[in-house]
Design a protein that fits this description.
By secondary structure, the chain is an alpha+beta fold. The chain is built from 20 helices and 26 strands. The strands form 5 sheets. An 8-stranded antiparallel sheet has the order 22-23-21-20-24-25-19-26, with helices on both faces. A 6-stranded antiparallel sheet has the order 15-14-13-18-17-16, with helices on both faces. The chain has a 5-stranded parallel sheet with strand order 2-1-3-6-7, with helices on both faces. α19 packs across α20. The radius of gyration is 40 Å and the shape is elongated. The two termini are about 70 Å apart. One of its GO terms (molecular function) is kinase activity. This is PAS domain-containing protein. InterPro entries: BAT_GAF/HTH-assoc, CheY-like_superfamily, GAF, GAF-like_dom_sf, HTH_bacterioopsin, PAC, PAS, PAS-assoc_C. Keywords: Chromophore, Flavoprotein, FMN, Kinase, Transcription, Transcription regulation, Transferase.
Length: about 675
Amino acid sequence: MANARALLVHPEEGSDRIETALGAAGFDVTRTDTAASAVAKATTGEYDCVVSEYALAGDDGVDLATAIEESDAGVPVVMFTETDEEGVPEAAFENGVDRFLQKNGSASIDKLVSDVSTVCSGVPASEPRRDVSDHEPSASEVTRAVEDAPIGISISDPDLPDYPLVYVNDAWEEHTGYPVEEALGRNPRFLQGPGTDPETVEKIGDAIANEEEATVEIRNYRRDGTPFWNELTVAPIYDEDGDLAHYVGFQNDISDRKEAERLAEERAEKLATERRSLDRVLGRVNGLFSDISRILVENRDPNAIPERVCEVVAGEPGYAGGWIGEVSSATGRLEIRAASGVSVDVGASFDIDETPTEVREAIETEELRSGSIEGAADGPLEPAAVGGRRLLVVPLTYGERRYGLLAIYGSGADVLDRRERRVCESVGKMIANGLHSIETAEMLTTDRVVELVVEIRDSTGPLARIADAVGGEVEHLGTTRLDDDACELYFRADGEDPDLDELAALPLVESMRTVSETNDGVSFGVTVTESPPLTQLADHGSVVAEATATPEGATLTIEAPPEHDVRSILDVFRGEYEGVELRSRVERESRDRTVAEFAAAVDERLTERQRAALKTAELNGYFEWPRPVDGSEIAEQMGITRQTFHQHLRAAERKLVEAYVDPRSSE
């Protein structure tokens, strides 16, 4: 078998001695002095072990061990270091280090070679035999080695009552804090204390009584009262006649190792607890998502969905129940639309100020909020008042459209944690999306519609500023939403030669392009960095049927379902502009499907590039015969290739035809 390969990660200074020792033990040693280089080498699978100093240029040995562990290279790491920083051993063992040794003379080098041999994937180090005759240590050298040994050594005399100590070395004094004069003549049991395990003490006593060797890990106490873990080996020593002469004790302070083991056990228990908690969360997640998804698919009545959702929440293990409510635009009070599993009456109305803090904050911030019974005050809807232990409030929002709040009450202290709150937040968005889809479908299929004419007398609005730059009235033809809240607005300006040069200078305009020109006017597209409020109307279940603008303001014709709250539509504009006025509100019966509604239905099926290709082609007369332009010219206007333009256009045409031939195919 080839010699084992060791990767030594160590500054050049001081590395020669380590390389020599490992080489003499039969290891093929490669040295590098940076963690980055070491990770690259260790992950190649060519090395059986990594030996690293803690202090490295730009990094440390713990970071190196972490990187090797995360790479799944499976290479054991031995840390051989001069550092005595507090916490380094614990951090090393927590992050993948297999052995931790402090440099302490030749004895530590020997221990390093032994440990590297042990961890090196079972590959034994070859130990060459050398002639040691005439090199036997003298009695004084043996005595000095015992006195200077890095482990504590003590000797007890069994011929004296209670086996007192008759010798301790310097390391024993250092470990225990007891000077020689206080230790000699006493049985070593004075190192024991309240945390010492009686069974371990009994094991030592039995070994001494039977003249046997024993190794234990025992909790001892220093002179100042601080505890430490002592790896203690007690062995009998016999004289030349075979009679018991002494008991020798070898002490090794393993407090760092025991602390690392304790941390590892805590970490393992924490991971096990996390796994059990995750399993419970996944169980509830699966139930919530599947059941609520089925409710949203099977029910087209928006009034029935809240009741069914609350029933699902109440049926999930770990949840006491829940309610769905919304703030009335007329009264400003929280009105309960549905409830299940908790003592909350459907139809009940509450002043916002008397509701739990979580409810008030969720209404104000439109963000998820949670709390527990321990921190709750007295009042309606508090967990203690309705039969739960924890409360989670989830806003039901789709864009700018508000569908109320979903409140979930947990029945135990281990539910609705951080991960589960994120899941419930997604459930809230799913419910809002479903309600919005139903609302939009009702608007597009109902025989009744409310037509609103809204006048905005504000010259600072984007439509008015665009009209001012053009120098006259513009008609809004449509909008394509882009990423990052930007959008492209399409307009038509009548007249023989409208001036478009000032458009590009507007701060709100990112780019401008001419779409088509005729003798009667020009159609153009303007990319703005922020979507104007009219693009938010779809989030409120409404559509803009017509829109015109002059330098003084804009006039919009909006269509919405009859039951829709007109105030919420007007608030979209009043939050941005001065002089917003509702000029007329007309409810029509048996109306035909408008072009705007058909466009809204198709728009949901088109991608942004497909919309742009279709709109640009239509505005340039591409669908007329003979065609005044070809695909190459339109592609050049859009900044794409001819092939890409035709791909987008064909996809858009297919979806447009499908929507016309089979309107229900998109439902």
